[in-house]
Amino acid sequence: MEAMDAQAMRRHNVALVMELIARDAPVSRVELARRTGLTKATVSSLVAELTGAELVRDLGPEPGRAPGRPAGRLVLDPYGPVALGLQFGSGHIAGVILDLSGRPLARRLRRFDVAAGGAPDGVRAARPVLRQLFDEATTAGRLVAGVGVAVGGTVSHGLVSALPLGWHGVDLRGLVAAELRALDLHGLDVLVAGEVACAALAEYQAGAARDWLYLGGEEVIGLAPLNPAASLAGDLGHVPVRRRGEPCPCGGRGCLDRYAGRPAMAAAAGLADAGVTRLLAGEEPLAVRVREQDPGALRALHRASEALADALIGVRALLAPETIVLGGRLAGLGEAFRHAVVGRLGSGLTVRLSRLGPDAAVRGAAGRVIARVVADPLAWIEG
Ligand SMILES: [Zn+2]
């Protein structure tokens, strides 16, 4: 075998082992050898490389295990490098530090009217959040593997368009990288994605199946596969569901967002306050009214559920998903909303409510950094 081939093979195998540990932790070397088909000696050597770089930790034999042949339990190293997540919402900037196992070590939330100014102002407002997160990471003696950024919009050719923020064709990656340089932080990866794609990844990393679809969002309504290898994320909120329906700020007509979006649902329920993201407010006014069985709120819920189910007709025809996870703000509407959507959709499709909270997108943003380290650990080790 050529030297290059051996190197490429090692890169592949170390990623394979890392991925299995990420997915199935805690797991033993014997188990890894069985699942990968590699020899135990090869697995031990790959694991040694990962533990040496503090990407994987051996918890040792299970307490109480009979002596003899102790089986180490391998996990992603909770004391290894960390990932930073940042999220831009219309009224806030959220930040989080995750360890490799996905556990939050610190959170920051800054109220800021991101939608009021342009993108440069909004991103500059993230500087104190970034500084605090980096200070926390440094104080804890952690290396930062990168910064993931979630935004309530879509990313196309590296440029962000976010209707709730009034952003069009924004080089968000470049703006965040400039903020990092202003903080004297150099050479860090910045990964930008829509909040829906990020929340879908958070769902996957929390244990949901790879072939499920995620539907939801806090600021927008989007659709994304849970599979971290897929980069597709659809802006379902601006799929037309009503012919000659209400005009939409996107330029379209009868968009789903006009029936199931936060302001539209609040207006339909007769609420003066449309509410803000649950990160700031906890529960939305509409969700509270739904629980109280307020007739106006229930009408708005049913109108939204019908529009959403209608938008899913095309999705079903195109992607034939078996299971959809309803997340974000729509999950906050609870079992009543899920039930209404299922009732309209009919059988053949399972709809589940996400168990993640309103921080799913910011955690998923940091999760993308972790996913990148897991997918190519040698790049981190060699970098
Ligand atoms: Zn629209």
UniProtKB/TrEMBL annotation:
Domain HTH marR-type stretches: 15-57
Top-level lineage group: Bacteria
One Pfam family named in its UniProt record: MarR_2
MF (Gene Ontology): kinase activity
The keyword Cytoplasm is assigned to this record: no
Entry-linked InterPro entries: ATPase_NBD, HTH_MarR-typ, ROK, WH-like_DNA-bd_sf, WH_DNA-bd_sf
Keyword Kinase set for record: yes
Keywords, alphabetical: Kinase, Transferase
SUPFAM superfamilies: Actin-like ATPase domain, Winged helix' DNA-binding domain
Record family assignment: Belongs to the ROK (NagC/XylR) family.
Record-linked PANTHER family: BIFUNCTIONAL UDP-N-ACETYLGLUCOSAMINE 2-EPIMERASE_N-ACETYLMANNOSAMINE KINASE, ROK (REPRESSOR, ORF, KINASE) FAMILY
Protein name: NBD/HSP70 family sugar kinase
Protein's organism: Amycolatopsis viridis
